[in-house]
Amino acid sequence: MPVNILMVCLGNICRSPLAEGLLASKLPKDTFFVDSAGTGHWHIGKKPDDRSIAVARKNGLDISNQRGKQFTTEDFDRYDYIYVMDHTNYNDVLAMAKNDAQKSKVKMILNELFPGENVDVPDPYYGSQFGFDSVYEMLDETCDIIAKKLIEKHS
Ligand code: 4NP
Question: How far, in Å, is the centroid of ligand 1 from the Cα of 11?
Answer without folding.
Answer: 4
